[in-house]
Each structure stands twice: as C-alpha cells, then as structure tokens.
Amino acid sequence: MRLRFTAALLGQALLCSVALQAQEGPELYGPGIFSTGAWDFFVALTPDQRTAYFCRANGDFSYYTILETRRVAGRWTEPRVAPFSGRWSDADPHVSADGSRMFFISNRPVSGNRSREEYDIWTMERAAGGGWGEPRRLAAPVNRDSVTEWSPSVARNGNLYFGTIRPGGKGGNDLYVARWVGGRYAEPESLGDSLNTEAGEFEPWVSPDERYLIFSAVGRPDGAGGFDLYLSQRRGGVWQGALPLTGVNTPKGEFNQSVSPDGRYLFFSSTRGSFDSVPSAALAYPEMQRRLTGVGNGLGDIYRISLKELGVGVRAP
Length: 317
Prior knowledge:
The protein has two helices and 24 strands. The model is unreliable at 3-20 (pLDDT under 50). The chain has a single domain (11-274, 288-310), classed as TolB, C-terminal domain (Neuraminidase). By secondary structure, it is mainly beta. The longest helix is centred in the C-terminal third of the chain and has 9 residues, at 285-293.
C-alpha cells in the first residue's frame, strides 16, 4: 500500500531461471479510469471480473480512498467512491477467491470520530443482496495496537498474508501469515529468512492455492532501485528464495501488485513517467502541463502484464 515506507506454478522453467524476463513489457492499464495522473494503485477484481476496486491517493500519499468501477458492455464505468469508503483513509482492497469476503486496511476508528494513527486490517462479508456487509476490524492476534498492518491477501483455505513490523522480525517491514485454524486466526508467523531480510519487504499477494507469492521490497541488492517486485514459490510447505521481476522492475518504483482471478495478468503500480528521460526537444507549455498533470507524471499509474510474457507457466488459481 504505502510509499513510506507463477500464476501457478511456476514449473521447471522458473526453477532454472535466475530472473523473470518480460518479452513485451507492461502496458498502462485503463487510462482515464484506473490511471489518471493522480496516485492510482492496487487493483482488486471480483471473481467474475465485472467489478474492480482500486485506490486513489492525494498528492503526498497521505490519504487514500477505495474506488469502484463496473464492466458494462466491455467497458469500465466511471469510478465512484466505494460505498464503504470515502471518509477515512482506506486502501489495499483484496477480494477472496470465492468472492465472499473483502479485506482492506483503514485508519478508521473502532468507535468514535477520530482516525487512528496506524492502519489495521478490516473485513466485510458479501451480503445477500450482492453488496457488502458492515466493515469490521480483525481482532488480535492479526491487528495490534500502535502497529500498522497492510496489504492483506487471503488464500482459499483462509490463511491471511500481510505485512507489518513485529518483535523478532528482521528489524524492518516483514511478511507474515496468520493461519486460519478452527474458525479463527492463529498467531501470525514470519514467512522466514528466505523472504524476509534486513531490507524492507511489503505487500504480499498470495495465490489462492498458496503456490506462489508476489511481494514488493525496497533496498535489496538485486533490486532495480526504489520499490521492486519479487516472486517466490512454495515447495514442500517452504517458501523458496524470491526472484526479482526484472521485466517489470525499473529504477523508479513498482508496488501494490495483484493477479487477476483467472491467473492471467499481473497488475501493479509504478512511478515511471514521461520525465524519466530528457525530452528530444524543448517542450511547449501545453505539452509541459500535460506531462506534469496527466498520466506519466511520476505519480503512481496502474500497469498490467501477462504472466505468460514473464515466462511463467499459467493456470487458473
């Protein structure tokens, strides 16, 4: 979620690869709808891919809103503020694989009218009429007072993956899983030294079958600069060392990733922009304004790339 800071599976080709290479490169997704020149980030699709939730932030990335758009006659409708968002700062939406639950993070209070300094994970259940029920804050041990939890991602078995800072961690932001056992969440466990490092690991997205995990990280020696995306596969119940998505990562920042419900596409946000290279000629005022205020101005835009283009074997999760 924050700047403060395969698809199944990957097969032998990934095991023999030292990095995942893209053939065509990412495409800007949904200009004017998903990518606008504002801070746009984090796509979450319902299982039928007819409704999308995504986030938009203010200029200094200190306030976030979850937006909703619907696909009608092959086109995404003009976004609206999601019915459960728009007052408090909300981000990182994630819809479960069966569409029955949504998770997101928020600084909203449990009671009263004062926002919290930290962000916690909230959840909603699908209502009988097709909307969402009332948001409720996950209790301990998932959420802790005075600590931020972010980027929830749930597996089909109920296990909840997220990022946070906890005692006994690597000293910074690490990745955790709270297992769903007996109808409740167990104490969160670190995903271990194969994934967590003394750098910062953020924003896990786990496949519904827990075969692979994509996360963002900053400060790793094999990164391209800024936030980068990494992928790890799980074998024998153990997460393997992560590989950088070198066909996606740039010296700018890539983060807030998710995979479409059919396992075909990776969505992510990037701060790459039109000023990353020197213009070939002096810019006239209209073009300068367009670059400064529109898509590609260096704030977060949403991109999409086929997992097949990353050389990753794909099947529906």
